[in-house]
């Protein structure tokens, strides 16, 4: 066969030629039997190939699913009761997570959460130390819980008026006493306020997104336990809803002034909490607890927020007057 002995096409031609020569010698009956045998053998071979291919696809899918699960805060999702598993198998975990996210498969999940994943990944460095999958799970739980809140249609003007009323809630000490009223007032304007504990890997303190043309989600975590941080984040998120249209998702990191929109939301929150007519007075305020408490009472907000604003403006050190801030205790099951 010489140099052609390793050429498959040449070999096939040789075999075909040999078989054709053989066939010349066969009767019609023998030819039919031979052809039937060949067809059966090809059929079996094709079945085997299909099986191997199927197994490879299933194994690739399992690998992809396992990788996906490793991106999610699975332990916390189970601990917080977000996932209900009937068995600890990989398939059950994947199907419970797909059900939680309401997506048919991992590819659809990546498509649906593209903006979240990109934003969270972008902010991972340096101040937003979060896992994108953990942020997506936190947001999804917020979406699920917002489904239980019946809201009137979004009304920006009304929401802005309502924010001025909500200011006075900052003086209430216990979240048990102010959260129901906060939620009710916001629901009247088309804003579903949801407070969801952040899972491991999600360091976000707040987020906003419009769920539809008429309903928005204002999501808060209780990662930050002081009243000034909680309320500033709430009014900052309110600023995004009022100022920045219905298409974008806003996700808050520790440093909230990185873009023009973040700056605007910060200014909005400051304006609502300490109206412009009091700003001069704030900057002339004698920096002792008594004066801060009096000023806070007069303008109708908590002393902790005034202390936070003085720190934010650089008038006092970050550790100064912190005793005026209230520490929230959230009812959290561990
Ligand atoms: Zn923001």
Secondary-structure element string: HHHHHHHHHEEEHEHHHH
| Number of separate structural domains | 2
Lateral arrangement of strands in the main beta sheet: 1-3-2-4
| Average pLDDT taken over every residue | 88
Q: What's the end-to-end separation, in Å?
A: 77 Å
Helix content: 55-70%
Q: Rg from C-alpha positions?
A: 32 Å
- Class inferred from helices and paired strands: mainly alpha
Strand content: 5-15%
Overall description:
With 334 residues, the protein is mainly alpha-helical. It has 2 domains: 72-112, no CATH class; 113-324, no CATH class. Helices cover 59% and strands 5% of the residues. It is built from 14 helices and 4 strands. The chain has helices at residues 8-25, 28-71, 74-79, 90-101, 106-112, 114-123, 132-146, 156-166, 175-187, 227-243, 260-273, 276-284, 289-299, 303-312, and strands at 191-195, 206-210, 216-220, 250-251. A 4-stranded mixed beta sheet has the order 1-3-2-4, sandwiched between helices. Helix 6 packs across helix 7, helix 10 packs across helix 14 (303-312) and helix 13 packs across helix 14 (303-312). The longest helix is centred in the N-terminal third of the chain and has 44 residues, at 28-71. It is rod-shaped and about 115 Å long. It starts with 7 loop residues before the first helix and ends in a 22-residue tail after the last helix. The mean pLDDT is 88. The structure holds zinc ion (ZN). Zinc ion is lined by residues 236, 240, 250, 252, 256, 262, 265.
């Amino acid at each position: 066969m010489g140099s052609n002995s390793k050429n498959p096409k040449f070999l096939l031609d040789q075999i075909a030629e040999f078989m054709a020569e053989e066939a010349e010698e066969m009767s019609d009956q023998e030819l039919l039997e031979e052809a039937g045998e060949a067809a059966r053998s090809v059929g079996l071979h094709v079945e085997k190939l299909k099986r191997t291919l199927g197994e490879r696809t299933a194994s690739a899918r399992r690998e992809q699913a396992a990788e996906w699960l490793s991106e999610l805060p699975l332990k916390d999702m189970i601990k917080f009761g977000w996932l209900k598993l009937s068995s600890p198998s990989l398939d059950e975990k994947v199907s419970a997570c797909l059900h939680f996210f309401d997506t048919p498969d991992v590819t659809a999940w990546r498509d649906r959460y593209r903006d979240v994943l990109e934003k969270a990944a972008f902010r991972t460095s340096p101040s937003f130390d979060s896992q994108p999958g953990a942020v997506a799970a936190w947001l999804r739980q917020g979406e699920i819980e917002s489904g239980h809140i019946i809201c009137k249609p979004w009304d920006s003007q009304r929401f802005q008026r309502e924010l001025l009323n909500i200011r006075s809630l900052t003086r209430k000490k216990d979240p048990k006493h102010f959260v129901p009223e906060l939620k009710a007032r916001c629901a009247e304007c088309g804003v579903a306020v949801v407070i969801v504990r952040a899972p491991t890997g999600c360091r976000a303190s707040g987020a906003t997104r419009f769920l539809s043309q008429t309903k928005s989600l204002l999501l808060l975590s209780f990662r930050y336990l002081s009243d000034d941080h909680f309320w500033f984040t709430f009014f900052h998120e309110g600023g995004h809803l009022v100022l920045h249209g219905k298409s974008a998702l806003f996700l808050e990191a520790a440093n909230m002034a990185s873009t023009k929109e973040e700056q605007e939301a910060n200014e909005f929150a400051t304006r609502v909490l300490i109206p412009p007519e009091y700003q001069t007075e704030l900057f002339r305020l004698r920096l002792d607890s008594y004066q801060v408490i009096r000023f806070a009472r007069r303008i109708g907000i908590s002393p902790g927020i005034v202390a936070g604003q003085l720190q934010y403006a650089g008038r006092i050190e970050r550790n100064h007057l912190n005793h005026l801030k209230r520490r929230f205790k959230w009812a959290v099951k561990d």
